[in-house]
Automatic annotation (TrEMBL):
Belongs to the peptidase C40 family. Residues 31-111, 172-226 form a coiled coil. The keyword Signal applies. Pfam families: CC_PcsB, NLPC_P60. Residues 1-27 form the signal peptide. Residues 243-280 have a biased composition (Low complexity). Keywords: Coiled coil, Hydrolase, Protease, Signal, Thiol protease. This is NlpC/P60 domain-containing protein. PROSITE patterns: NLPC_P60.
Length: 401
């Protein structure tokens, strides 16, 4: 017996340590899976952030290039302005020469038809006048020839300047349009990346929350398991709480049930169960109790709600929902809140415990009569006496749906 008590104290110490804020709980596959998801979303978030940063830099560079092209276009427009002024000047000179040549041509057409050489030779007053006339004719011919050459040269220059100006302007406009299109594509890509980043951030936050929940579930699961193991260790040596639901026990249990049927439900619902022997009396059979007892031996599974594995609230939900009660799946706190509090339980009513592994209502079972309840214990669905020291120390009250 002393050895059993020492074991109980050791287990209690383990639970106290587990309740410490920095308690270390081994991660199960669910925690590892959630951690992998967090790592994946963190990687995606970082990658998208880097891509957006690169795009931001590209957009910044493109804007700078666009501004540079705008400045170059402005400079080119000034050059074009100067070129256009030069072209206008040359075109004016060309026009004046054309007018001069046309005037001379008209003047020559209006003069009498004479032989210019004869006129020079025979109408000269002297030899000096002769040479002067010859020289004048030569100068006139050379001047006209130079005018014609300049006219052709400047006309070619005008054409060349116009071509250069048009090509330069077209090149700059094209370059600007390309940069604007590039900026538009970058902005579109940035918006898409930003949208993906927001999604990745949301996924990351959700994954982190799920990881925290998984770690908390694992911690709570471990604490609950340790608490239930403590309950098992609190039982007396040699106790056998297993119950067989047989017709032989039914008649005696019925009389027990009937004798309690007139008990008042208005007194204190927190009155603790009797502290006498664990074998206080026969249990009830039939109906909901029989249905619950048939699951003895089903293993304990945290969050379990089926005959493949139950936790305490999952067991309550399954038994009651299969016996005509329209209750939804809830936790112990929810069931305690919704239950009608009673002081004298009947077989099929609920037994609530508190502060077993978390503060407040935290464990429950089905009262089966004989000062016993069937519940999801550390070894699965089993029967435990309400006189058990662990049960009495955590007893909260009785209730019914």
């Amino acid at each position: 017996m002393l050895r059993k008590k020492l074991a109980v104290l050791a287990m209690a110490s383990t639970i106290v340590l587990s309740l410490a804020p920095n308690a270390s709980v081994l991660a199960d596959s669910k925690v590892e899976t959630k951690q992998a998801e967090v790592d994946k979303f963190q990687s995606q978030f970082k990658e998208l952030s880097n891509e957006i940063e690169k795009i931001d830099q590209q957009i910044k560079t493109t804007k700078q290039n666009i501004e540079a092209k705008k400045a170059e276009i402005s400079e080119t427009e000034e050059i074009i302005k100067d070129k256009n002024a030069r072209i206008t000047y040359l075109q004016d000179r060309i026009q004046k020469r054309n007018d001069l040549l046309e005037d001379r041509l008209v003047a020559m057409q209006k003069q009498p038809k004479v032989n210019l050489v004869t006129d020079v030779l025979f109408n000269s007053d002297s030899i000096v006048d002769f040479f002067n006339r010859v020289n004048s004719i030569s100068t006139l011919f050379e001047a006209d020839e130079n005018i014609i050459k300049e006219q052709k040269s400047e006309q070619a220059e005008v054409l060349k300047e116009k071509q250069l100006v048009d090509e330069k302007k077209a090149s700059l406009v094209t370059a600007k349009e390309d940069l604007v299109a590039q900026q538009s594509e970058l902005s579109k890509s940035q918006a898409e990346k930003q949208k993906s980043l927001i999604t990745a951030e949301a996924n990351l936050k959700l994954a982190v929350k799920e990881l925290e929940n998984a770690k908390e579930d694992e911690r709570v699961q471990r604490l609950e398991q340790q608490s239930l193991e403590l309950a098992a260790l609190s039982s007396d040596d040699g106790e056998d709480d297993s119950v067989s639901s047989t017709p032989a026990a039914k008649s005696s249990s019925n009389s027990d049930s009937k004798s309690d049927s007139n008990s008042s439900s208005d007194s204190n619902s927190n009155s603790k169960p009797d502290s006498g022997s664990n074998n206080d009396g026969p249990v009830a059979t039939g109906g909901l109790v029989d249905y619950a007892l048939q699951f003895q031996g089903v293993p304990y599974v945290f969050g379990g709600t089926s005959p493949s594995g139950f936790d305490c609230s999952g067991f309550i939900w399954y038994v009651y929902s299969h016996n005509g009660y329209g209750i939804s799946r809830g936790n112990v706190k929810t069931y305690w809140s919704n239950a009608t509090k009673i002081s004298s339980p009947q077989p099929g009513d609920l037994v609530f415990l508190q502060n077993t592994y978390i503060n407040g209502p935290s464990h429950m079972g089905i009262y089966i009569g004989g000062n016993k309840m069937v519940h999801a214990g550390s070894k699965g669905i089993s029967v435990i006496s309400l006189s058990n020291s662990w049960v009495r120390s955590h007893f909260l009250g009785y209730g019914k749906f």
